[in-house]
Protein backbone atom coordinates (compact mmCIF):
# COMPACT_ATOMS: atom_id res chain seq x y z
CA UNK A 1 0.00 0.00 0.00
CA UNK A 2 1.23 3.49 -0.79
CA UNK A 3 1.93 6.10 1.85
CA UNK A 4 -0.94 8.61 2.22
CA UNK A 5 0.19 12.22 1.85
CA UNK A 6 -2.09 13.26 4.68
CA UNK A 7 -0.24 10.94 7.06
CA UNK A 8 3.01 12.86 6.52
CA UNK A 9 1.26 16.18 7.06
CA UNK A 10 -0.47 14.84 10.18
CA UNK A 11 2.83 13.63 11.63
CA UNK A 12 4.40 17.08 11.30
CA UNK A 13 1.24 18.79 12.54
CA UNK A 14 1.21 16.48 15.56
CA UNK A 15 4.83 17.35 16.25
CA UNK A 16 4.10 21.09 16.15
CA UNK A 17 0.85 20.90 18.13
CA UNK A 18 2.07 18.31 20.62
CA UNK A 19 3.14 18.67 24.23
CA UNK A 20 6.78 19.38 23.28
CA UNK A 21 5.95 21.36 20.15
CA UNK A 22 5.23 25.04 19.64
CA UNK A 23 4.13 25.76 23.23
CA UNK A 24 7.53 25.23 24.89
CA UNK A 25 9.34 26.85 21.95
CA UNK A 26 7.19 29.98 22.14
CA UNK A 27 7.57 30.18 25.91
CA UNK A 28 11.36 29.97 25.57
CA UNK A 29 11.45 32.68 22.86
CA UNK A 30 8.97 35.01 24.55
CA UNK A 31 11.55 36.87 26.63
CA UNK A 32 13.91 37.38 23.71
CA UNK A 33 11.19 39.06 21.65
CA UNK A 34 9.71 40.93 24.62
CA UNK A 35 6.20 39.65 23.94
CA UNK A 36 3.48 39.00 26.50
CA UNK A 37 1.78 35.69 27.33
CA UNK A 38 -1.06 36.41 24.87
CA UNK A 39 1.18 35.38 21.94
CA UNK A 40 1.41 31.81 23.27
CA UNK A 41 -2.25 31.21 24.13
CA UNK A 42 -4.63 29.59 21.68
CA UNK A 43 -2.20 28.97 18.83
CA UNK A 44 -3.36 26.00 16.77
CA UNK A 45 -1.97 24.21 13.73
CA UNK A 46 -4.24 23.43 10.77
CA UNK A 47 -3.77 21.35 7.62
CA UNK A 48 -5.42 23.50 4.95
CA UNK A 49 -3.64 25.16 2.06
CA UNK A 50 -5.81 28.12 1.15
CA UNK A 51 -5.12 31.79 0.47
CA UNK A 52 -5.72 34.15 3.37
CA UNK A 53 -8.45 35.99 1.46
CA UNK A 54 -10.42 32.78 0.96
CA UNK A 55 -10.06 31.71 4.60
CA UNK A 56 -11.26 35.11 5.77
CA UNK A 57 -14.34 34.89 3.55
CA UNK A 58 -15.09 31.36 4.75
CA UNK A 59 -15.41 32.34 8.40
CA UNK A 60 -13.84 34.10 11.31
CA UNK A 61 -10.07 33.82 11.13
CA UNK A 62 -8.10 34.07 14.34
CA UNK A 63 -4.49 35.16 13.99
CA UNK A 64 -1.84 33.88 14.02
CA UNK A 65 -2.73 31.21 11.47
CA UNK A 66 -0.36 28.25 11.22
CA UNK A 67 -1.04 25.77 8.42
CA UNK A 68 0.92 22.66 7.42
CA UNK A 69 0.62 21.08 3.98
CA UNK A 70 2.53 18.92 1.49
CA UNK A 71 3.33 20.61 -1.81
CA UNK A 72 5.78 18.19 -3.44
CA UNK A 73 6.40 14.44 -3.49
CA UNK A 74 9.44 12.57 -4.84
CA UNK A 75 9.19 8.79 -5.10
CA UNK A 76 12.72 7.74 -6.02
CA UNK A 77 12.03 4.01 -5.55
CA UNK A 78 15.57 3.71 -4.23
CA UNK A 79 14.75 0.82 -1.88
CA UNK A 80 14.03 -2.55 -3.40
CA UNK A 81 10.63 -4.10 -2.51
CA UNK A 82 9.27 -0.75 -1.30
CA UNK A 83 6.25 0.85 -2.94
CA UNK A 84 7.33 4.30 -1.80
CA UNK A 85 10.85 5.35 -0.87
CA UNK A 86 11.39 9.02 -1.31
CA UNK A 87 10.71 12.42 0.17
CA UNK A 88 7.78 14.70 0.80
CA UNK A 89 8.23 18.44 0.99
CA UNK A 90 6.09 19.80 3.82
CA UNK A 91 5.47 23.51 4.28
CA UNK A 92 4.45 25.19 7.52
CA UNK A 93 2.94 28.56 6.67
CA UNK A 94 2.63 31.20 9.38
CA UNK A 95 0.37 34.24 8.93
CA UNK A 96 0.24 37.13 11.35
CA UNK A 97 -2.01 40.14 11.20
CA UNK A 98 -2.25 43.39 13.09
CA UNK A 99 -4.14 46.66 12.98
CA UNK A 100 -0.77 48.44 13.10
CA UNK A 101 2.22 48.02 10.84
CA UNK A 102 4.65 48.22 13.75
CA UNK A 103 5.34 44.87 15.32
CA UNK A 104 3.92 42.74 12.50
CA UNK A 105 7.36 41.56 11.37
CA UNK A 106 8.51 40.86 14.92
CA UNK A 107 5.47 38.68 15.59
CA UNK A 108 6.03 36.76 12.36
CA UNK A 109 9.69 36.14 13.18
CA UNK A 110 8.67 34.98 16.66
CA UNK A 111 6.30 32.30 15.34
CA UNK A 112 8.66 31.23 12.53
CA UNK A 113 11.50 30.89 15.04
CA UNK A 114 9.23 28.71 17.21
CA UNK A 115 8.53 26.43 14.22
CA UNK A 116 12.27 26.29 13.44
CA UNK A 117 13.03 25.37 17.05
CA UNK A 118 10.59 22.44 16.95
CA UNK A 119 12.12 21.15 13.71
CA UNK A 120 15.68 21.49 15.04
CA UNK A 121 14.84 19.64 18.27
CA UNK A 122 12.99 16.79 16.54
CA UNK A 123 15.01 15.91 13.43
CA UNK A 124 15.00 12.15 13.01
CA UNK A 125 12.39 9.43 13.27
CA UNK A 126 8.75 10.58 13.53
CA UNK A 127 7.32 7.09 13.55
CA UNK A 128 7.22 4.01 11.37
CA UNK A 129 8.94 4.79 8.07
CA UNK A 130 8.90 8.60 8.42
CA UNK A 131 12.00 10.68 9.10
CA UNK A 132 12.27 14.44 9.53
CA UNK A 133 15.40 15.37 7.61
CA UNK A 134 17.75 17.87 9.25
CA UNK A 135 17.71 21.29 7.64
CA UNK A 136 14.94 23.55 6.41
CA UNK A 137 14.34 26.68 4.35
CA UNK A 138 12.63 29.83 5.58
CA UNK A 139 11.01 32.52 3.43
CA UNK A 140 9.15 35.72 4.24
CA UNK A 141 6.66 37.69 2.15
CA UNK A 142 6.38 41.45 2.36
CA UNK A 143 3.69 42.98 4.57
CA UNK A 144 0.47 43.54 2.63
CA UNK A 145 -3.09 44.67 3.21
CA UNK A 146 -5.25 41.94 4.69
CA UNK A 147 -6.38 40.34 7.91
CA UNK A 148 -6.95 42.96 10.61
CA UNK A 149 -5.36 45.64 8.34
CA UNK A 150 -1.82 44.42 7.78
CA UNK A 151 -0.72 40.84 7.19
CA UNK A 152 2.62 39.11 6.67
CA UNK A 153 3.34 35.49 5.77
CA UNK A 154 6.37 33.31 6.47
CA UNK A 155 7.02 29.75 5.35
CA UNK A 156 9.23 27.05 6.82
CA UNK A 157 9.92 24.24 4.35
CA UNK A 158 11.26 20.86 5.43
CA UNK A 159 11.56 17.39 3.94
CA UNK A 160 10.19 14.15 5.34
CA UNK A 161 11.93 10.99 4.22
CA UNK A 162 9.42 8.18 3.74
CA UNK A 163 10.03 4.47 3.27
CA UNK A 164 7.05 2.14 2.88
Q: Give the overall shape.
A: globular
Number of domains: 1
Q: Could you tell me the radius of gyration in angstroms?
A: 17 Å
Helices, by number, come to 4
- Overall CATH class: Alpha Beta
Stretches where pLDDT is under 50 for at least 5 consecutive residues are none
Any idea what the CATH architecture is? Answer: 2-Layer Sandwich
Mean pLDDT: 88
Distance between the termini: 8 Å
Strand content: 25-35%
- What's the order of the H and E elements? HHEHEEHEEEEE
The amount of helix comes to: 25-40%
Blueprint of the fold:
Blueprint: H1 5-17, H2 22-33, E1 45-46, H3 52-58, E2 65-75, E3 85-98, H4 104-121, E4 124-127, E5 130-132, E6 137-140, E7 144-146, E8 149-163
Parallel strand pairs: 1-2
Antiparallel strand pairs: 2-3, 3-8, 4-5, 5-8, 6-8, 7-8
Task: Give structural attributes.
164 residues; globular; 8-stranded mixed sheet; 30% helix; Alpha-Beta Plaits; alpha+beta
Describe this entry's structure for a reader.
The protein has a single domain (5-163), classed as Phage minor tail protein U (Alpha-Beta Plaits). 30% of the residues lie in helices and 34% in strands. It contains four helices and eight strands. It has helices at residues 5-17, 22-33, 52-58, 104-121, and strands spanning 45-46, 65-75, 85-98, 124-127, 130-132, 137-140, 144-146, 149-163. Strands 1, 2, 3, 4, 5, 6, 7 and 8 form an eight-stranded mixed β-sheet that branches. The longest helix is centred in the C-terminal third of the chain and has 18 residues, at 104-121. The model has no long low-confidence stretch (mean pLDDT 88).
Amino acid sequence: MTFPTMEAVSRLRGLLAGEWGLGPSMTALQGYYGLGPEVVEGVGVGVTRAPAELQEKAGSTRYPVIQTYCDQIENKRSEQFRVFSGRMRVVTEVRVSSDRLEGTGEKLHFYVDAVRDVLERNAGCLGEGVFLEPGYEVGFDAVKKGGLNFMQVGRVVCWLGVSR
